[in-house]
């Protein structure tokens, strides 16, 4: 039994979304042309989330992928809330005052973000009031703090991440009289999520990363070939600096138990994350909250379970690592993706596949035999591969979909094998997670002309 | 590409020594850039100037000089044999479906074989044979049909099993084959060297050859060629031959009076490899795998393999274009599917090393047949081009026929299918050509089943009723750009898509056409026949009548209102055209002839009518919509619509009258139907067409009227033994040979064209006889259907070929029409065919190798004619070709 190509396509395309930055006066002034995003679930429901929004009170665009674990509650909350925290962190004092006054006097609020959402990307209505109140408390504090300095994007990103994680923690500790909300905030806090967020404003690209999702820049070399530049570091056991950091933060006696089987305390893959209060709160606090919490929480073995060798919390932070990059005309696109993609594909291949996709097939270099010794068989293989590449490009209108098709369907030769693709997509739910992880991808395409013009100004 | 390179060189006026080419070998020549001024200047005049030094130009020069013409100049813009000829794959293949093409290829093969001996120039001729593979049963049927034609021509050819294929060529993967055709005498040549050999022989016979000389345009005065302008001066000439290959179109358009040569270039790719470890034998047969779209020949121990891809790349649409010339590179991605097919056919070649992918543009024509002959507008302007990548196969024969044409006024064979005059200006649109050749090139390999049609370049010429008919389920075919209805699919019956009717067996429209035929026989049908060529010839005095009496064999001095069927014959008495002519008044005539005669007939008459301002000929084809009302109730419909009596007393057969139909006045009504059935053709000024059609359909309802198409018409005319020009009749067939003596008035009191030849035939008898065959043991449901071109056997001996066929719904049998010859059993000499000879034979028709018994008849079944009105002149004519 195989899925037909059209069945495969309908699965692959179910969650695809594209946004094109509108052109004003025929002239696109944004350094971003637009983005394509898509999600392929392995878990049911998927634990990955994605967000994209344009900042309305400041310049710039925000894009992010969020990989949840132990449920999707935390990733969902972060995907709804983080961009507000970032946007607020970036707002100048006057705007914050204006917004606060509007709320205070019940006037219409200045919109802060314009969201670019797929119909499947939902926001929780029930929690919006709660979330809003927390956000308002944050901006009130910012108003009080008024440093007078212009906001630095790096600091804003770090503050926003930390503040949101802090709010998630606090909301869980305080609880809510509404039992639904009470359970929700607890689920958010006890589950976890990594986040990889890009902020693009002109030629300034900031990547704030917490966890093991990844941001990668696609660069077109002078000879037309494609290369990849990492714009984030994975926060996991493979990252020596990260292991070092964790060890520095805890007594030497815990050195051996801190990282076991490449996991934090032998349990958690990412070394930084939102939520996951089991790795942040003291044992007493955890016990108290769980005991006073609703029955569902009490019955859950996972939440009750205290990690072994849990001596000096917190072991986990949501503080992001921020990388700033000045965009150049050769920087053609940015890929943000959860680890589901990076587990299956090398970044170099990602750069090539997306690059060739965006450049269009006609940009595929023609083959010339010239003086080389090529046999008919070798040429045949080469042409077959090129054709496969072209045919799969034509199937997709979305770079992220195209990438997923490769990630799931690639055979050993690096070309999409329909049989394999079909097999992978028809796996039953319980098996899917064994063969692949949730994959979420955002591909942002840059406008080289605008970037070139910015460069010349500077 | 070298040709273009050379063109660039000649653009910057580089000159090379004229006689040098003879001493140099071909491989040096193309790279040699010795720049010297021409030592020999161009002559100021010559009888013939040939433009183009490829295989075509040199072949024409060779044959003209062989026929004794010496005053010939051949001009080549670059070097001899440097264009497409140089890059041609060099395969001489006789396996051609059309008889004239087959003859040309057969002659070429024989010519090339002895050319080296004749000229001393090595031609690389090697008799390797060729194997055409069939992956499907349908393909095998088409190969069997070709094999039948080859065999009766005495060309060895056999259908072989896949096992035998393997014995002939050990590299072939035979697992997907159902059979193959082996032609052992097919050959390989170096096409450039063949061309050089022809040039050498021509040069020895006195032909002057000038390289690096570009023709800028041809001068034409009063419809005659007067000379050519070149970059080295002017040459006055009587005849000009355009053999400029893919540039022939441009050259034709370069002068003030354009000569339309509809061809268009496409890129064509083939692969050259290094030798195999154990080099391939140079005698290994050439392999053609049409289902894989490829051909494979041995080449210097390795292979040469190319093909005809599904997605060709046309080029030079806007004329010669430097950018496109520079872009003529290897395109491996484009060649990919052909490489797939090659490795599938010969998997053992995987390890073979590639030498080069050659990109060599070829020119293609709108109907896949080459273009030869004289321009309809400029006398003395001849063309030989558009070889559809079979240039080397046709080169010899085509050159011979064209030389004969120039010297004798007509070739020794019927070349109408290749005649430039089959095209008009309408096929000369670049957009049309570009689209059409993109269809034609893949068609080279596609399976061609009976009644296939082109899909591109359609809906160009249409009747005003097109939309109305289309909405009623019309299925269309095209003739000379005109859309004509094949049949009407009844409402609710949409099972008919293109693929189902494409078969060698009984097609799915069988019952539909059957019911249309039935309606023609029992009630009344209307067929839109607007595509017919229609001329009006009139004069102030008797000039029209006198001229026409000379040009036509029947007596046209009939009472006004009479319609005459007559041949337009050549001096040998052969049919140049077959027409119906109505005498509209004492001094004006209305002439109807087949659709594809529009250009040819016009040229024939223009060249022969006296240049007299009192005599006017007008092409009124576009002015009239023709509705053919066929059937016993046609008379009722028409009389109700006109309030005029239409019965035989008032409106006899073969009569023409202007009358009103509905509100429309001035409708030219003729009592002919081109089928032998009773009825009328209405020639309606186009603005009345819709009105008259609506009136006819409304009034016809109570008489059971319905639309019908050309397939029904064909079935009706063939069962009544009506010959059609272009299909059954050609310039080599006389009225005497097809039982039409009654249409010739040898004693009409004045001389006419072909009279002498006909007198002679009348006295001495004919050497072929048009005969009708009724297939006896043929199962319509199960057996292969006849088409045309099937060999006819009499008492087991080959006597001729069929020219058309149809299923007769009345006789419930297949009817084939064809010519019977009487070949002397020992010498093969043609003998007189007598009625007894026809009647006293046992006949068989060979359909793709299978023989069916047939009954021969020289006269139609009288029972089929429901009415006879004028005793002496049964309507025995028709024109449409399928």
From TrEMBL, chain A:
Domain (PPM-type phosphatase): residue spans on this chain: 32-446
Major enzyme class: hydrolase
UniProt signal peptide: none
Catalytic activity reported: O-phospho-L-seryl-[pyruvate dehydrogenase E1 alpha subunit] + H2O = L-seryl-[pyruvate dehydrogenase E1 alpha subunit] + phosphate
GO cellular component, one term: mitochondrion
PROSITE patterns: PPM_1 (PS01032), PPM_2 (PS51746)
Tagged with keyword Metal-binding: yes
SMART domains per the UniProt record, alphabetical: PP2Cc
Pfam families membership: PP2C
Keywords of this entry: Acetylation, Calcium, Hydrolase, Magnesium, Metal-binding, Mitochondrion, Protein phosphatase, Transit peptide
Localization annotation: Mitochondrion
GO MF assignments: [pyruvate dehydrogenase (acetyl-transferring)]-phosphatase activity; metal ion binding
EC number(s) from the headed UniProt entry: 3.1.3.43
Similarity remark: Belongs to the PP2C family.
Quaternary data: Heterodimer of a catalytic (PDP1) and a regulatory (PDPR) subunit.
Protein name per its UniProtKB record: [Pyruvate dehydrogenase [acetyl-transferring]]-phosphatase 1, mitochondrial
Originating species: Donacobius atricapilla
Gene expressing this chain: Pdp1
From TrEMBL, chain B:
PROSITE patterns reported in the protein's UniProt record: RHODANESE_3
InterPro entries according to UniProt: FAD-dep_OxRdtase (IPR006076), FAD/NAD-bd_sf (IPR036188), FAO_M (IPR032503), GcvT/YgfZ/DmdA (IPR028896), GcvT/YgfZ_C (IPR029043), GcvT_C (IPR013977), GCVT_N (IPR006222), Rhodanese-like_dom (IPR001763)
GO (cellular component) term, any one: mitochondrial matrix
Domain Rhodanese stretches: 48-91
Keyword entries, A-Z: Mitochondrion, Transit peptide
UniProt subcellular location: Mitochondrion matrix
Coiled coil regions in record: none
Gene3D superfamilies: Aminomethyltransferase beta-barrel domains, D-Amino Acid Oxidase, subunit A, domain 2, FAD/NAD(P)-binding domain, Probable tRNA modification gtpase trme, domain 1
TM segment ranges: none
Record's subunit section: Heterodimer of a catalytic (PDP1) and a regulatory (PDPR) subunit.
Role played: Decreases the sensitivity of PDP1 to magnesium ions, and this inhibition is reversed by the polyamine spermine.
Similarity remark: Belongs to the GcvT family.
Protein name: Pyruvate dehydrogenase phosphatase regulatory subunit, mitochondrial
Species this chain originates from: Donacobius atricapilla
């Amino acid at each position: 039994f195989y899925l037909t190509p059209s069945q495969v396509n309908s699965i692959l395309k179910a969650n695809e979304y594209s946004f094109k930055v509108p052109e004003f006066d025929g002239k696109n002034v944004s350094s971003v042309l637009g983005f394509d995003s898509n999600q392929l679930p392995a878990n049911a429901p998927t634990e990955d989330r994605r967000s994209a929004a344009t900042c309305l009170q400041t310049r710039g665009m925000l894009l992010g992928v969020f990989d949840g674990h132990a449920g999707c509650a935390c990733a969902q909350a972060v995907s709804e809330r983080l961009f507000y925290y970032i946007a607020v962190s970036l707002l100048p004092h006057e705007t914050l005052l204006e917004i606060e006054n509007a709320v205070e006097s019940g006037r219409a609020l200045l919109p802060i973000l314009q969201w670019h959402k797929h119909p499947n990307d939902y926001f929780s209505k029930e929690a919006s009031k709660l979330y809003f109140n927390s956000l308002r408390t944050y901006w009130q504090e910012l108003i009080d703090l008024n440093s007078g300095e212009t906001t630095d994007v790096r600091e804003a990103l770090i503050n926003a991440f930390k503040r949101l994680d802090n709010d998630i923690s606090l909301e869980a500790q305080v609880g809510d009289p509404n039992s639904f909300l009470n359970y929700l905030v607890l689920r958010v806090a006890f589950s976890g999520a990594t986040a990889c967020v890009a902020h693009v404003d002109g030629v300034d690209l900031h990547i704030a990363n917490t966890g093991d999702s990844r941001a990668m820049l696609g660069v077109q070399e002078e000879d037309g070939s494609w290369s990849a530049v990492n714009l984030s570091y994975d926060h996991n056991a493979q990252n020596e600096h990260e292991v070092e950091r964790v060890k520095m933060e805890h007594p030497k006696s815990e050195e051996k138990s801190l990282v076991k089987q490449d996991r934090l305390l032998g349990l958690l893959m990412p070394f930084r994350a939102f939520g996951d209060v089991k790795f942040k709160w003291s044992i007493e606090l955890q016990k108290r909250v769980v005991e006073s919490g609703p029955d569902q929480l009490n019955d859950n073995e996972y939440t009750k379970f205290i990690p072994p060798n849990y001596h000096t919390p917190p072991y986990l932070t949501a503080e992001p690592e921020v990388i700033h990059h000045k965009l150049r005309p050769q920087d053609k696109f940015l890929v943000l993706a959860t680890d589901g993609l990076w587990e299956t594909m090398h970044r170099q291949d990602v750069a090539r596949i997306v690059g060739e996709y965006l450049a269009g097939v006609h940009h595929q270099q023609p083959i010339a035999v010239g003086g080389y010794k090529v046999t008919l068989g070798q040429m045949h293989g080469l042409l077959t591969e090129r054709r496969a590449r072209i045919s799969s490009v034509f199937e997709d209108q979305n770079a992220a979909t195209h990438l997923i098709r490769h990630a799931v369907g690639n055979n050993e030769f690096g070309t999409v094998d329909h049989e394999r693709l079909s097999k992978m997509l028809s796996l039953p739910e319980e098996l899917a997670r064994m063969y692949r992880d949730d994959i979420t991808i955002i591909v942002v395409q840059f406008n080289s002309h605008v970037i070139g013009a910015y460069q010349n100004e500077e | 590409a070298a040709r273009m390179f050379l063109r660039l060189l000649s653009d910057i006026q580089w000159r090379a020594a004229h006689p040098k080419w003879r001493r140099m070998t071909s491989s040096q020549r193309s790279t040699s850039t010795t720049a010297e001024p021409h030592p020999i200047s161009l002559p100021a005049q010559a009888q013939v100037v040939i433009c183009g030094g490829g295989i075509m130009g040199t072949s024409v020069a060779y044959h003209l000089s062989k026929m004794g013409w010496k005053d010939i100049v051949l001009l080549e813009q670059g070097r001899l044999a440097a264009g497409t000829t140089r890059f041609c794959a060099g395969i001489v293949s006789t396996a051609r479906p059309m008889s004239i093409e087959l003859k040309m290829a057969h002659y070429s093969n024989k010519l090339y074989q002895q050319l080296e001996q004749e000229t001393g120039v090595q031609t690389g001729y090697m008799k390797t044979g060729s194997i055409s593979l069939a992956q499907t049963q349908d393909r095998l049927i088409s190969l069997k049909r070709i094999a039948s034609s080859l065999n009766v021509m005495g060309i060895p050819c056999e259908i072989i099993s896949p096992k035998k294929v393997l014995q002939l060529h050990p590299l072939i993967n035979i697992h997907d084959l159902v059979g193959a055709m082996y032609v052992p005498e097919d050959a390989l040549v170096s096409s450039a060297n063949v061309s050089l050999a022809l040039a050498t022989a021509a040069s020895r016979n006195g032909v002057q050859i000038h390289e690096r000389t570009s023709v800028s345009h041809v001068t034409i005065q009063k419809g005659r060629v007067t000379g050519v302008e070149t970059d080295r001066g002017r040459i006055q000439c009587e005849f000009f031959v355009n053999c400029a290959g893919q540039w022939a179109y441009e050259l034709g358009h370069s002068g003030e009076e354009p000569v339309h040569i509809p061809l268009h270039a496409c890129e064509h790719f083939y692969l050259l490899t290094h030798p195999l470890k154990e080099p391939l034998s140079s005698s290994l047969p050439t392999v053609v795998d049409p289902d894989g779209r490829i051909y494979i020949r041995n080449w210097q121990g390795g292979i040469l393999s190319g093909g005809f891809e599904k997605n060709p790349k046309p080029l030079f649409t806007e004329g010669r274009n430097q950018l496109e010339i520079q872009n003529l590179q290897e395109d491996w991605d484009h060649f990919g599917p052909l490489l797939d097919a090659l490795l599938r056919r010969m998997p053992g070649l995987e390890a073979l090393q590639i030498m080069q992918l050659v990109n060599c543009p070829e020119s293609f024509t709108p109907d896949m047949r080459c273009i030869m002959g004289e321009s309809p507008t400029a006398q003395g302007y001849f063309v030989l081009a558009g070889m559809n990548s079979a240039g080397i196969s046709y080169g010899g024969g085509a050159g011979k026929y064209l030389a004969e044409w120039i010297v004798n006024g007509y070739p020794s064979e019927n070349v109408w299918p290749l005649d430039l005059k089959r095209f008009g200006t309408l096929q000369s649109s670049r957009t049309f050509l570009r689209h059409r050749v993109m269809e034609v090139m893949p068609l080279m390999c596609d399976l061609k089943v009976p009644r296939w049609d082109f899909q591109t370049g359609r809906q160009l010429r249409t009747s005003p009723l097109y939309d109305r008919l289309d909405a009623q389920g019309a299925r269309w075919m095209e003739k000379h750009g005109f859309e004509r209805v094949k049949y009407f699919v009844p409402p609710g019956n949409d099972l008919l898509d293109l693929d189902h009717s494409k078969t060698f067996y009984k097609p799915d429209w069988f019952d539909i056409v059957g019911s249309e035929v039935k309606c023609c026989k029992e009630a009344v049908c209307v067929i839109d026949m607007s595509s017919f060529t229609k001329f009006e010839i009139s004069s102030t005095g008797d000039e029209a009548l006198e001229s026409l009496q000379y040009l036509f064999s029947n007596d046209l001095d009939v009472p006004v209102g009479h319609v005459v069927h007559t041949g337009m014959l050549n001096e040998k008495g052969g049919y140049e055209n077959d027409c119906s002519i109505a005498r509209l008044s004492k001094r004006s005539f209305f002439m109807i002839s087949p659709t594809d005669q529009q250009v040819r007939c016009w040229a024939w008459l223009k060249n022969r009518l006296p240049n007299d301002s009192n005599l006017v000929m007008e092409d009124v084809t576009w002015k009239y919509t023709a509705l053919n009302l066929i059937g016993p109730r046609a008379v009722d419909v028409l009389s109700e619509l006109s309030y005029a009596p239409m019965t035989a007393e008032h409106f006899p057969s073969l009569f023409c009258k202007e009358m009103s139909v509905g509100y429309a006045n001035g409708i030219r009504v003729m009592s002919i139907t081109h089928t032998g059935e009773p009825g009328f053709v209405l020639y309606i000024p186009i603005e009345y067409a819709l009105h008259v059609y609506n009136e006819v359909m409304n009034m016809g309802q109570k008489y059971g009227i319905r639309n019908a198409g050309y397939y029904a018409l064909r079935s009706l005319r063939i069962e009544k033994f009506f010959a059609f020009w272009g299909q059954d009749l050609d310039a080599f067939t006389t009225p005497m040979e097809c039982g039409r003596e009654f249409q010739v008035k040898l004693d009409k009191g004045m001389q006419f064209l072909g009279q002498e030849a006909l007198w002679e035939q009348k006295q001495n008898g004919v050497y072929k006889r048009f005969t009708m065959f009724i297939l006896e043991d043929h199962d319509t449901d199960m057996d292969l259907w006849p088409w045309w071109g099937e060999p006819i056997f009499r008492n087991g001996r080959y006597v001729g070929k069929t020219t058309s066929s149809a299923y007769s719904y009345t006789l419930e049998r297949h009817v084939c029409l064809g010519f019977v010859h009487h070949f002397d059993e020992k010498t093969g000499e043609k003998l007189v065919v007598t009625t007894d000879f026809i009647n006293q034979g046992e006949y068989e028709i060979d359909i793709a190798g299978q023989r069916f018994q047939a009954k021969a008849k020289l006269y139609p079944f009288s029972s089929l004619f429901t009415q006879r009105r004028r005793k002496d002149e049964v309507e025995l004519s028709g024109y449409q070709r399928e």
